[in-house]
């Protein structure tokens, strides 16, 4: 009995960390969305990216404690993505579509592992807040490589493709099969699916904007034209009816943060 419990412990801990990770990701996007909504509706906020959201947490009471918890959660989320990519518990398979999805999980894992590392640096007081633009920095590095413009353009096209995939997921409610909602009433299910769909579509808008600016940077061989999450939101606000556009996208990002919390609660997690 003891041996069986010990054998199950790693999977149990991975599941717990994964759920904690979804919640931590939700907190980060919730802050990004809330600050953008305040900026849109004239309540003193500002557009920012995920690192800016972490810095916002740090300035709050018990900020270091809260940020350390978020860092742990983001590491758990990254671990879950690596498990999805390597062990394939959801049986995506080894055909072209399956490999593409699993590669996406791995890339996502590295992104959130990097964000967790940034949070750890902020807690330790050894990094963050440098004022640099990470998106423009890595765009410049890619542009300096052989075929650099093609590389940056390909990344931009890939991100736009991810944006359209978010629209597809929102329209088809693909996330419904990922969550165990049988204990909810039909009305509650509709709310869950509506919030999740709205949030996923808003994330798609942001992806498409970021991808578009990367393609512009590639076309003009100018890394300064690249935009990350915060800058993309700012550009949206500068368009005709920009405050309304930013407000809708901001509310969508808040909805996405709620969707992540719902994933933490209802996601079907198969670790083995």
Automatic annotation (TrEMBL):
UniProt domain DUF1206: residue ranges: 20-87, 103-172, 198-267
Record key words, sorted: Membrane, Transmembrane, Transmembrane helix
Record bears the keyword Membrane: yes
Annotated TM spans: 26-45, 65-83, 103-127, 147-171, 191-215, 244-262
Protein name per UniProt: DUF1206 domain-containing protein
Organism of derivation: Chroococcidiopsis thermalis (strain PCC 7203)
Lineage: Bacteria, Bacillati, Cyanobacteriota, Cyanophyceae, Chroococcidiopsidales
């Amino acid at each position: 009995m003891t041996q069986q419990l010990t054998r199950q412990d790693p999977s149990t801990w991975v599941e717990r960390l994964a759920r904690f990770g979804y919640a931590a990701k939700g907190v980060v996007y919730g802050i990004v969305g809330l600050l953008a909504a305040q900026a849109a509706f004239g309540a003193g906020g500002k557009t920012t990216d995920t690192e800016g959201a972490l810095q916002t947490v740090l300035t709050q009471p018990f900020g270091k404690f809260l940020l350390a918890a978020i860092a742990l959660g983001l590491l758990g989320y990254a671990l879950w993505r690596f498990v999805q990519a390597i062990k394939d518990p959801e049986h995506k398979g080894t055909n072209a579509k399956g490999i593409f999805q699993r590669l996406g999980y791995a890339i996502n894992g590295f992104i959130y592992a990097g964000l967790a590392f940034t949070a750890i640096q902020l807690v330790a007081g050894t990094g963050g807040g440098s004022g640099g633009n990470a998106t423009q920095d890595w765009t410049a590095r890619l542009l300096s490589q052989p075929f650099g413009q093609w590389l940056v353009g390909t990344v931009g096209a890939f991100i736009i493709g991810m944006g359209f995939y978010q629209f597809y997921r929102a329209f088809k409610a693909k996330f419904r099969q990922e969550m165990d909602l049988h204990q909810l009433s039909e009305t509650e299910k509709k709310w869950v699916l509506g919030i999740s769909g709205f949030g996923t579509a808003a994330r798609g808008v942001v992806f498409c904007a970021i991808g578009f600016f990367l393609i512009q940077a590639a076309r003009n061989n100018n890394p300064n034209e690249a935009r990350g999450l915060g800058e993309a939101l700012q550009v949206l606000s500068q368009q005709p009816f920009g405050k309304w556009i930013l407000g809708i996208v901001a509310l969508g990002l808040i909805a996405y943060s709620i969707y992540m919390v719902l994933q933490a609660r209802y996601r079907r997690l198969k670790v083995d």
